[in-house]
Amino acid sequence: MKAVVVYESLWGNTAAVARAVAEGIGEGAVALPTKDAGADDLAGADLIVAGGPVFAFHLSSERTRHDIAEHPEPGAPAPDLSGPSIRDWLDALPSGTAAFASFDTEVRGPFGKGAPTIAKELEEKGYRRVAKPEGFIVQGKYGPLKDGELDRARRWGASLRAAL
Ligand SMILES: Cc1cc2nc3c(=O)[nH]c(=O)nc-3n(C[C@H](O)[C@H](O)[C@H](O)COP(=O)(O)O)c2cc1C
């Protein structure tokens, strides 16, 4: 079984969740940032899991990424903007029929503002949903993840394998 967990992550929280989800899925699963998840990397995948952070109540956008880069809060950690947003990655993704699941990271409810958008995009491209969109919680604007979230991400990953 081949599974690819693709993520956008400016400060590492979504990356950590993605790695934990891949661990939970187990053998055959890798976590890749958007810039490393090209068509060749996805070829033959049975399961695609896609995740990104919520900014301003939505998936990140060119505008929020631009604002974060150009108008950082005093003391804000430097963001990693080296790869495309998950939104741009989804736009470039060819149609397919693999199973998928989606997640986001965010500080507060209503949860899952980003993950449902990812799910909608993937469904429109023909992919098959195997789980409800999931949200993982960070404490504070830049993290860290709330205690227990990485364990929950591993369990969620294991449940995705079981759902295939
Ligand atoms: C400019 C900005 C806007 C944010 N807006 C929201 C928001 O609307 N809702 C929310 O729950 N979290 C919000 N957050 C928290 C982010 O979701 C959190 O930083 C994200 O999970 C970090 O993921 P990353 O480390 O993978 O980039 C915001 C953070 C920043 C810096």
Automatic annotation (TrEMBL):
User: Domain Flavodoxin-like, which positions?
Assistant: 3-161
Q: Any idea what this protein is called?
A: Flavodoxin-like domain-containing protein
What SUPFAM superfamilies does its record include?
A: Flavoproteins
